[in-house]
Amino acid sequence: MKVWFERHPRTRLVTLTFYYLSIVVALIVIYGRGDFSTPAFVYQNF
Fold this sequence. Notes:
Layout: H1 2-7, H2 9-31
């Protein structure tokens, strides 16, 4: 697989760009609602 990506550098660039954009979109979907509160299990009255 690595050899194939070395022969097609543009495909590698497009794949990595799509990968990082999907991470950014996922973070926007998760935190885009403005709810930045931590889950209840993080702070358990220590």
